[in-house]
Design a protein that fits this description.
Blueprint: E1 18-22, H1 38-42, H2 45-51, E2 55-58, H3 86-98, E3 102-107, H4 117-124, H5 130-133, E4 137-138, E5 161-165, E6 171-176, H6 191-206, E7 211-214, H7 254-265, E8 273-276, H8 285-288, E9 295-297, H9 309-325, E10 331-333, H10 342-345, H11 354-357, H12 369-385, E11 389-393, H13 414-418, H14 462-466, H15 472-486, E12 493-494, E13 503-507, E14 512-517, E15 529-533, E16 546-551
Parallel strand pairs: 1-2, 1-11, 2-3, 3-7, 7-8, 8-9, 10-11
Antiparallel strand pairs: 4-6, 5-6, 12-13, 13-14, 14-16, 15-16
Helix pairs in contact: 6-7, 12-15
Bound molecules: 1-deoxynojirimycin (NOJ) and calcium ion (CA).
Length: about 550
């Protein structure tokens, strides 16, 4: 019988937690097959503890055909054999909990993988059967149903519909997938689907999991009244119809699902939590982050802030005020497994459109690596000082840049294959971590890595940075530990610098000041003890592209 370990503690542990995202396939390889796994993570829990983080969020580790890096889940209550097994999962929970670190797992409720038992049953079932009703099957248009039900595109292009071959061998109905064709969307009007996800939530809560990151949390409930979904101009937040009336996204009824999960969360001590990946208008986010719902929702608009004091202030201030009004909590993020690493983004001129810029091997403008890292660290220190919780992505604590030269034939991301005209790939931020300066896959494992690592990884390895007092790794360690001691009421006051619009300065109720210099000349700091500076001070002043914390 497996051992399940539970970590007690305050119900609000996550309100201002620092959470570290692990992309399991790329963190550490424990069995020499080039793929990261649970054993590898277990072998690195002391590294995680040394960072001072409160929790780990693990991206999917479920059985999967890996059509979308594991976000195509074939079984929600098991572990992919390449990643480990449930016994190792329990060992990992135990090892984390023993160090006071909580675990958040990724739940993918909008779609399954096409290998899921229920999708396979749906393929064998007849049109209109209960098996098909768990997904979104529709007849095609045209004389023989040969025209897809609508012009809806998938996020990964080109179409959101795939035609199936019926059990009699003839071409038949079509099913809908907002992402790759290996990711059929669930029908959330179906009661069996609802019940099965509640079972999954309970399954992981019972295994000691502390929370859930909910994938595309705004897409589950769809208006299928017309039997099909029309083409949309884009998937941008700006084209989602307001007030919960969009066909596809952010419909009010989605909150009924989260309320039903909340009932389960609240059966545990402390109650479990959820964090929504919801690409919705900022005003709509607090509903996902309500204590009647998941609890948290990523404030993604900060990703587009650029290096701009006024914009950062506007976005941070707005998010904090809205969550205050709704009795929820802000959740900051600068990098994850879907976006170009922020050390690279900040190395580009302000306003660069990453979608247009990112064309493998022909990047213009070039990345200013030095500037990118300085600004990335300054922004991280700024977000760590704000009220709310902050999510970090593996490798950002090493100052890793995006890997921009992965050969096309080694790419794994379906976004790359399904949207060739864009050339966009998320593999560059998913390259396995460098642990040592040298050796096979820089210590990721003993037998290579599933995505190629560049030579410059050596200098960013944990080994290279561990004992270097000026490294990004030691900056993160210091900042996270200081923050733990400093964290206070979720309030802040902006301090105006009338003569310098390029300074962002706020103070928390306990006298914890955070000053970020978005300009070019060093700026003076408030009186008090300087606790941290992301770059060495210049005659007592904080230099350009840096953040300092002062306590008075
Ligand atoms: C968001 C995930 O973060 C991303 O990696 C995935 O491709 C899509 N959702 C679809 O599950
Ligand atoms: Ca492995």
């Amino acid at each position: 019988m497996a051992q399940h370990t539970f970590l007690k503690g305050p119900a609000d542990w996550w309100h201002q937690a620092v959470v570290y995202q692990i992309y399991p396939r790329s963190f550490a390889d424990g069995n020499a097959d080039g793929i990261g796994d649970l054993k590898g993570i277990i072998s690195r829990v002391d590294y995680l503890a040394g960072l001072g983080i409160d929790a780990v969020w693990m991206s999917p580790f479920y059985p999967s055909a890996l059509a979308d890096g594991g976000y195509d889940v074939d079984d929600y209550r098991d572990i992919d054999s390449r990643i480990g097994n449930l016994t190792e999962f329990d060992q990992l929970v135990e090892a984390l909990h023993a160090r006071g670190i909580r675990l958040i797992v990724d739940l993918v409720p909008n779609h399954s993988g096409s290998g899921h038992k229920w999708f396979q049953e749906a393929l064998k079932g007849a049109p209109g059967s209960p098996e098909r009703d768990r997904y979104i099957f529709r007849d095609g248009k045209g004389e023989n149903g040969e025209i897809r039900p609508s012009e809806l595109r998938s996020h990964f292009g080109p179409t959101a519909w795939t035609r199936v071959t019926e059990p009699d061998g003839k071409p038949g109905q079509w099913y809908m997938h907002l992402f790759a064709s290996e990711q059929p969307d669930w029908n959330w009007d179906n009661d069996e689907v609802k019940a099965d996800f509640r079972k999954t939530v309970r399954f992981w809560c019972d295994r000691g999991v502390d929370g859930f990151r909910v994938d595309v949390a705004h897409a589950l409930v769809k208006d299928l009244a017309n039997g099909h979904l029309p083409e949309r101009e884009s998937f941008d937040v700006s084209v989602i119809k307001p007030n919960g009336t969009d066909d596809l996204f952010d419909r009010d009824a989605v909150h009924e699902i989260y309320a039903s999960w909340r009932d389960i969360f609240n059966e545990y001590d402390p109650p479990r939590m959820g964090v929504a990946e919801a690409w919705v208008a900022a005003e709509r986010l607090p509903a996902y982050a309500s204590e009647k719902g998941l609890g948290q929702a990523f404030a993604f608009d900060m990703l587009g802030a650029g290096w701009d004091a006024a914009r950062v202030k506007q976005l941070a201030g707005g998010a904090i005020e809205r969550s205050h009004n709704m009795n929820s909590h802000t959740t900051w993020v600068l990098s994850n497994h879907d976006i170009v690493r922020h050390a690279t983004r900040f190395g580009l001129p302000n306003g660069t459109d990453i979608g247009k810029w990112y064309k493998p091997n022909r990047l213009d403008p070039k990345v200013n690596v030095e500037q990118g890292l300085k600004r990335a660290n300054a922004m991280t220190a700024l977000l760590l000082a704000l009220p709310g919780s902050t999510y970090l992505y593996q490798g950002e604590e090493l100052g890793l840049q995006e890997v921009l030269d992965i050969p096309a034939e080694l790419m794994q991301d379906p976004q790359f294959f399904r949207n060739p005209e864009l050339g966009l790939s998320r593999d560059g931020c998913r390259v396995p971590l460098p642990w040592t300066r040298e050796g096979s896959s820089f210590g990721f494992g003993t037998n290579g890595s599933h995505l190629p690592q560049p030579e410059w990884y050596s200098g960013y390895s944990v080994e290279a940075e561990d004992t270097d007092a000026s490294s990004t790794l030691n900056l993160y360690r210091k900042a996270i530990k200081l923050r733990k001691a400093l964290v206070t009421k979720q309030e802040l006051k902006w301090v105006k610098h009338f003569f310098n619009k390029n300074v962002l300065h706020f103070v928390r109720p306990n006298g914890w000041h955070c000053v970020t210099n978005f300009g070019t000349k060093p700026v003076a700091l408030p009186r008090g003890e300087v606790l941290l500076s992301t770059l060495p001070l210049v005659e007592g002043k904080v230099p350009a592209n840096a953040t300092a914390w002062v306590k008075n």
